């Protein structure tokens, strides 16, 4: 089995008017920051905030009447479940979604709100998928795989048709890889339309499933990632066979670059991205020389991120940029000392967020005290100015 350009064109015709034809826009500021000419495809503007609707709907639209009546089933803890549930409800197709036990409640509830029967079982995706396959056979349902399905891949490939219609001069597409459905579809369409376009895969360094497959190794699991949407232990057999010949290389991304990507989309483009959604942008930040001066198309694949995680990522970016900084100051334990330090910081335009006062640290003199002062500044230069002012006034701080 293989994926053809004709299948992707047919998928585009089916999907027309039933999903958002999302914009692909040039970003002047991201271009300036990365050194590439950056175009962004905003798939977070789909109704369920992710590109997964395309493949799920393309599959649903090809079911016969008997299959529609019996219903469909899938295993997913993320965007595939919501995209499938939403369009199945819209088309009147019964849908069952098996979600692992650790699935966040908000995702479970959102999927139920779209009319799906949600079965919560399994310690992870593999166990959830095994149960979904059993239920599929027992109930005579149609299984809709999140990536390892030709119809699903064809739906995802419609993204490339739209991108190259809006920006025909694109030279490079860095595409996130989880199970491989997106890159298989996008690479097939893009290479057909523009054979010289370069395709790079993008994976979390903690879940390099496609890279491991290339090297004939088991996929290592090195820890957590905020790009959970592409944290897949094993790439699909079909997706790998289709995508591998068209991929120039796979770029492994460390966590800080995903965080920076999410923060840049929020602060620069004023749009919300989940960790996996920022993977393409993260690749430009991690490998600037590869993309410098090139016309690059980025797919912002989704915007379903937990608000607490988003808050944490944005705050950590402020720390990374030294706009939030903690200073440790050791001085005499006497009235007015903290007020004097605060006065210096305030006079320099800094904002004190938090103060911790420690008299019992053994590396502090018995008559002294240790203060940890967290401050907010305009930028790293402003932070340096405050540090220097404290030093000049006799309160030399140490950054912590």
Can you walk through the features of this model?
With 400 residues, the chain is an alpha/beta fold. It folds into three domains: 214 residues, 3-Layer(aba) Sandwich (Rossmann fold); 92 residues, 3-Layer(aba) Sandwich (Rossmann fold), CATH 3.40.50.1100; 79 residues, 2-Layer Sandwich (Alpha-Beta Plaits), CATH 3.30.70.260. It is 44% helix and 19% strand. The protein contains 17 helices and 14 strands. The longest helix is centred in the middle third of the chain and has 17 residues. In the native structure, TdcB is in a dimeric form, whereas in the TdcB-AMP complex, it exists in a tetrameric form (dimer of dimers). Its EC number is 4.3.1.17, 4.3.1.19. Pathway: Amino-acid degradation; L-threonine degradation via propanoate pathway; propanoate from L-threonine: step 1/4.
Key words describing this protein structure:
14 strands; 4-stranded antiparallel sheet; Rossmann fold; Alpha-Beta Plaits; 4-stranded parallel sheet; L-serine ammonia-lyase activity; 19% strand; alpha/beta; 400 residues
């Amino acid at each position: 089995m293989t994926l053809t350009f004709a299948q992707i064109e047919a998928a585009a015709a089916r999907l027309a008017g039933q999903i958002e034809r999302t914009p692909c826009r040039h970003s002047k500021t991201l271009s300036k920051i990365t050194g590439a000419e950056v175009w962004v495809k905003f798939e977070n503007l789909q109704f369920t905030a992710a590109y997964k609707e395309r493949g799920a709907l393309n599959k649903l639209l090809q079911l016969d009447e008997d299959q529609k009546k019996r219903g469909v089933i899938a295993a997913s803890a993320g965007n595939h479940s919501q995209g499938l549930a939403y369009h199945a409800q819209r088309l009147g197709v019964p849908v069952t979604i098996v979600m692992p036990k650790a699935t966040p409640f908000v995702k479970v509830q959102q999927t139920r709100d779209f009319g799906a029967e949600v079965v919560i079982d399994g310690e992870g995706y593999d166990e959830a998928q095994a149960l979904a396959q059993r239920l599929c056979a027992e109930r005579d349902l149609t299984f809709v795989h999140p990536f390892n399905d030709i119809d699903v891949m064809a739906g995802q490939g419609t993204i490339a048709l739209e991108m190259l219609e809006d920006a025909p001069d694109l030279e490079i597409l860095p595409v996130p890889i989880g199970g491989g459905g997106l890159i298989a579809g996008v690479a097939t369409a893009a290479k057909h339309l523009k054979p010289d376009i370069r395709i790079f895969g993008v994976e979390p360094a903690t879940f390099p499933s496609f890279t491991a497959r290339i090297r004939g190794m088991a996929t290592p699991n090195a820890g957590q990632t905020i790009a959970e949407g592409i944290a897949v232990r094993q790439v699909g057999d079909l997706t790998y066979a289709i995508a591998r010949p068209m991929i120039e290389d796979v770029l492994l991304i460390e966590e800080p670059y995903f965080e920076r990507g999410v923060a840049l989309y929020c602060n620069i483009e004023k749009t919300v991205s989940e960790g996996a959604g920022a993977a393409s942008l993260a690749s430009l930040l991690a490998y600037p020389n590869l993309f410098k001066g090139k016309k690059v198309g980025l797919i912002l694949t989704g915007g379903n991120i937990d608000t607490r995680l988003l808050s944490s990522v944005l705050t950590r970016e402020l720390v990374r940029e030294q706009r939030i900084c903690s200073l440790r100051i050791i001085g005499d334990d006497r009235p007015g000392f903290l007020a004097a330090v605060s006065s210096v910081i305030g006079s320099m335009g800094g904002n004190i967020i938090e103060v911790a006062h420690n008299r019992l640290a053994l590396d502090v003199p018995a008559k002294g005290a240790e203060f940890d002062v967290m401050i907010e500044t305009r930028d790293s230069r402003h932070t340096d100015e405050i540090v220097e002012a404290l030093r000049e006034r006799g309160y030399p701080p140490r950054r912590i």
